[in-house]
Structure to design on (402 residues):
């Protein structure tokens, strides 16, 4: 028996044994995988933070004395740019919380103050309309709510279920503690990655050259460059588009004299980071809060935002984001739907650049295949005549000079 056949049989036997062991101990393996992924959560968070902040940091590095050869400037360029990036991010988060949270608190205060009077007004309105039905009118008029009794019963229910509430509260506190710890570790990991970015890229390239073939390295370089360009264009475009949409919402609400203009513009702008459905999510929250003041103004706001969303989706988004990412609208909708169904909000955000990367790479493969088969694509056939036409005048000029 040849060595290749022996290796093949050994591989099949090892694979069969592995499948049997995994099928018999699937629960143990799933627990191990969940624990392993939980341990990597902070590193994954740090990688995403570093990647997004790297886009802003590169802008600062182009401004912070880029042509200077001073050693002091070279040593302080990276730390200064990282500090400026994190300062801007913290300032934006604090500004959003300062605008949104107080307004939401006021809206819920209005709801709490307006519910009992609204119920009494509704009861009076119904009894006035039911004068022709005295029996029903008497029953509705006799309806009275003892708010003190309701509060007492609610307190008894809360007291009886105190143990469950405490246990759930402890679970929430534990979850928040774990989330905060992962976020802090992720930020520390992101800072380290940004500081050592050049060294990490060099080490990764050395590993690729040492352990993989040149053909694989060329193909992987094309994939990584395409993905990096697409993701950077997407995040930069989404950021600009969110600012434009939030500003237009704020200006329009001020012109229409609608309440909560600053809060609504901020919410619409922040939620616009989620493609397609994000602005509608922010609009729903804002419309509900405006409803506490005036239902007619809430209706006007909904109509205004539908018009604004159409303007944004047909004019702003294709120019700011769509052109840079290069993904048709039908594939954008499919990416948001599938990504949201699989991974929630994060899937909605990352689904578009991932799909755009796959879309670009698939067309690159298609063009190379057409070149191998000698099939001219419509775009190539349209471009060739213009190239020839551009070359002819140069030959004529050269002949004249001669």
């Amino acid at each position: 028996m040849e060595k290749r056949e022996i290796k093949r049989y050994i591989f099949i036997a090892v694979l069969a044994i592995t499948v049997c062991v995994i099928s018999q101990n699937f629960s143990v393996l799933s627990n191990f995988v969940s624990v392993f992924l939980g341990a990597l959560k902070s590193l994954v968070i740090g990688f995403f933070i570093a990647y997004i902040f790297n886009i802003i940091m590169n802008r600062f590095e182009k401004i912070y004395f880029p042509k200077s050869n001073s050693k002091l400037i070279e040593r302080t360029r990276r730390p200064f740019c990282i500090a400026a990036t994190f300062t801007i991010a913290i300032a934006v988060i604090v500004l959003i919380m300062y605008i949104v949270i107080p307004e939401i608190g006021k809206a819920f205060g209005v709801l709490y103050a307006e519910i009992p009077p609204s119920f009494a007004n509704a009861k009076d309105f119904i009894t006035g309309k039911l004068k022709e039905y005295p029996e029903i009118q008497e029953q509705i008029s006799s309806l009275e709510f003892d708010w003190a009794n309701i509060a007492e019963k609610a307190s008894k229910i809360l007291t009886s279920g105190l143990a469950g509430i405490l246990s759930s509260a402890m679970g929430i506190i534990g979850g928040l503690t774990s989330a905060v710890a992962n976020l802090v570790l992720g930020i520390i990991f992101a800072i380290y990655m940004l500081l050592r970015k050049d060294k990490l890229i060099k080490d990764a390239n050395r590993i690729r050259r040492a352990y993989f073939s040149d053909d694989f390295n060329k193909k992987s370089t094309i994939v990584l460059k395409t993905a990096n360009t697409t993701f950077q264009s997407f995040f930069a475009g989404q950021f600009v588009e969110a600012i434009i949409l939030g500003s237009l919402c704020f200006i329009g609400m001020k012109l229409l004299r609608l309440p909560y203009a600053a809060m609504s513009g901020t919410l619409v702008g922040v939620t616009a980071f989620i493609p397609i459905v994000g602005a509608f999510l922010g609009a729903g929250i804002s419309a509900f809060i405006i409803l506490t003041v005036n239902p007619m103004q809430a209706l006007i706001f909904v109509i205004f935002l539908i018009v604004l969303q159409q303007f944004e989706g047909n004019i702003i988004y294709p120019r700011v984001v769509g052109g840079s990412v290069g993904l048709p609208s039908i594939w954008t909708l499919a990416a948001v739907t599938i990504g949201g169904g699989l991974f929630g909000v994060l899937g909605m955000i990352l689904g578009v650049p991932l799909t755009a990367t796959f879309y670009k790479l698939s067309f690159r493969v298609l063009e190379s295949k057409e070149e191998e088969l000698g099939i001219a694509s419509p775009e190539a056939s349209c471009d060739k005549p213009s190239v020839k036409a551009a070359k002819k005048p140069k030959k004529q000029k050269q002949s004249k000079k001669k």
